[in-house]
Design a protein that fits this description.
Layout lengths: L29 H6 L15 E5 L3 H12 L3 E5 L10 E3 L8 E3 L10 H9 L4 E3 L11 E5 L2 E5 L7 H18 L1 H10 L2 H15 L4 H6 L7 H10 L14 H9 L7 E3 L5 H8 L27 E7 L3 E6 L4 E4 L2 E3 L11 E2 L6 H9 L2 E2 L1 E8 L18 E4 L5 E5 L7 E9 H5 L6 H15 L14 E4 L10 E2 L6 H8 L14 E3 L11 H18 L15 H4 L8
Parallel strand pairs: 1-2, 1-12, 6-16, 9-13, 12-21
Antiparallel strand pairs: 3-4, 5-8, 6-7, 9-10, 10-11, 14-20, 15-18, 15-19, 16-17, 17-18
Helix pairs in contact: 2-10, 2-15, 4-8, 5-6, 11-14
Organism: Streptomyces sp. NBC_00093
Protein name: NAD(P)/FAD-dependent oxidoreductase
GO molecular function, one term: L-amino-acid oxidase activity
Length: 565
């Protein structure tokens, strides 16, 4: 894939090792941990069949529950809405069931290597996702300040876009040791990764993304910064991220998380749903044919959790929406952490006070999407005057911001994501119904494509989401603000509970907002595996010496610790 504004990443060729999203903060090879024939570890036989609460049935919760079941524990999954969390795939009323819309996660980089192992495990197929100027994207239109530019490659764009690309490359190289870090990540050179990152964390923790650009001589031009914010790199404009910590952005570009994206054929929600039903071939304690579904009454999770508190013996007591009260020796919490502040009544004793502070300071970004089904991929028709595609993947400074064209063949019904927006741009849509949103979007796109009648191709009602308005999410994903590194470190390292007082152990945090790579399914998987190791250790279990888990090597690769004073 070629980005609209290319990154400084030098993509791997056949001689270069692939990169992975384990990232600079905790350079642990989760993909190798999963692939090892020894498995993830074992617990004492005396603990087999013990119930463990898993709160949240998103990807992180289902992965954690699946792996705990394989060890011989009995996960009891609680889910307030539906299995999948922000892997949410929906259909269109009255349309062919094969037409789907990804309301949450819709594109996954190949550097998500642990995630890919689960995708392969459940036999899902992926295909290239049509990002701006990706190889699979026939054409892209960049529309800024009322002026549109049609491009099939970055070379088709005006010189100013190449100037902005060069400025970004220079900014990364001079301000963030980009080539050195990218090389170290490819080679999994942990000492070098830690050396570079320790210096950058100390230097940049208090810096915004925008401030990082402004500090670079390469971005002294406001016009260049403005274009970069509106067009961005990889998936499109990044100005909604300008107030966030530059460390968040560096994690993305170092690990190529914004490149070479692929979508899951048939929808991403299939992944957690298939794991829920899957009967592992290698399982301890439980008979062959056991699945997460079979361990739950009628094959469905317990309902929403309404209260969490500690009871005698440092056990975790869970009350659900049905009024049922159950007590567990351990629990894994994978829902968005703000649920602990609002939807769930919690005892302060659940976590140390500094962890509560970190939960309260978590910064979530808003996000909205709207999709419509259409009769066919009409955008591939050629304009008789210009010879160009009738319509293109579109980046604009208008209300729609990003428009994606999704098809499954020239003669089949297709889907348009009319708009995908974040933060302030998302909030602009919040008061509007799905149909009202569609009308504004069609008007906006009509100004870019005055000779294209999108409406006549629409064959069903639109579907939309605003994640900030979803009661069990209250936002799309975490994005640290400047100065939040210490908070994120507390949450990520929470699985190492030998460091906690005895009366603060037994409940483990997981989910992409606990990870260093929020907004990416890989972070959900990695923190689920951390929690699995934590629960195993809590029950007196161990990993095989040939396959040490994340907690076994923690002291060697622990995230940089900044002073608190």
């Amino acid at each position: 894939m070629t980005s609209t504004v290319p990154t400084a990443v030098q993509h791997a060729d056949a001689q270069q090792p692939p990169i992975t999203m384990f990232g600079p903060d905790f350079p642990y090879a989760y993909d190798d941990f999963l692939a090892h024939p020894a498995g993830l570890g074992q617990i004492p036989a005396t603990e087999h069949g013990t119930e463990v609460a898993v709160i949240g049935g998103g990807l992180s919760g289902i992965v954690a529950a699946y792996e705990l079941m394989k060890m011989g524990l009995k996960p009891v999954v609680y889910e307030a809405d539906q299995i999948g969390g922000r892997l949410r795939t929906v259909g269109f009323d009255g349309c062919d069931p094969s037409l789907t819309a990804e309301m949450g996660a819709m594109r996954f980089p190949p550097s998500s290597t642990a995630l890919q192992r689960y995708i392969d495990l459940v036999d899902l197929e992926t295909r290239p996702f049509p990002n701006p100027l990706a190889e699979c994207t026939p054409s892209t239109v960049v529309d800024l300040k009322g002026e549109s530019h049609y491009a099939e490659s970055v070379g088709d764009l005006p010189q100013v876009y190449r100037d902005v690309a060069e400025a970004w490359n220079t900014c990364l190289e001079e301000g963030a040791d980009f080539s050195d870090m990218n090389r170290a990540l490819r080679e999994r050179d942990v000492p070098r990764i830690r050396e570079i990152w320790a210096r950058l964390v100390e230097k940049l923790d208090n810096q915004t993304f925008y401030g990082f650009l402004c500090d670079s001589e390469a971005f002294k031009s406001f016009r260049h910064r403005e274009i970069f914010g509106q067009v961005g790199f990889g998936t499109g404009g990044w100005d909604t991220d300008f107030p966030n910590s530059i460390l968040e952005i560096l994690r993305v570009v170092y690990t190529e998380a914004d490149d070479h994206h692929r979508g899951i054929v048939g929808g991403s929600q299939q992944l957690p749903l298939r794991l829920w039903e899957r009967e592992p071939g290698k399982i301890v304690h439980w008979p062959y044919g056991t699945s997460l579904a079979s361990l739950h009454v009628n094959g469905v999770p317990r309902p929403a959790v309404t209260r969490l508190h500690r009871t005698a013996g440092n056990r975790i007591t869970v009350t659900d929406a049905g009024g049922d009260i159950r007590t567990y020796p351990a629990a894994v919490f994978t829902a968005q952490s703000w649920m602990l502040l609002s939807k769930i009544a919690c005892d302060d004793s659940l976590f140390p006070i500094d962890h509560w502070t970190a939960i309260e300071r978590t910064h979530y970004m808003e996000s909205s999407k709207l999709f419509v089904p259409v009769d066919r991929p009409f955008w591939l028709d050629k304009d008789p005057v210009t010879g160009r595609d009738l319509m293109s993947m579109t980046l604009t400074d208008r209300m729609t911001r990003g428009t994606y064209l999704l098809d499954d063949g020239p003669d089949k019904p297709a889907v348009i994501c009319l708009s995908y927006t974040w933060c302030d741009d998302s909030l602009k849509w919040l008061p509007l119904s799905a149909n009202e949103r569609m009308e504004v979007m069609l008007k906006s796109l009509g100004e870019i494509y005055p000779n294209v009648d999108i409406r006549k191709h629409v064959i069903g009602s639109p579907v939309t989401v605003s994640w900030e308005n979803e009661p069990y999410f209250m936002g799309a994903f975490k994005a640290n603000l400047p100065g939040h590194y210490r908070y994120q470190r507390r949450l990520f390292t929470h699985f190492m509970q030998d460091r906690l007082p005895a009366d603060k152990r037994g409940i483990f945090l997981a989910g992409d907002d606990i990870s260093w790579t929020a907004g990416w399914a890989e972070g959900a998987v990695q923190t689920a595996l951390n929690a699995v190791w934590g629960v195993m250790h809590h029950f007196g279990g161990t990993t095989d010496p040939t396959n040490p888990g994340p907690g076994d090597v923690y002291d060697e690769i622990a995230p940089v610790e900044l002073p608190e004073d």
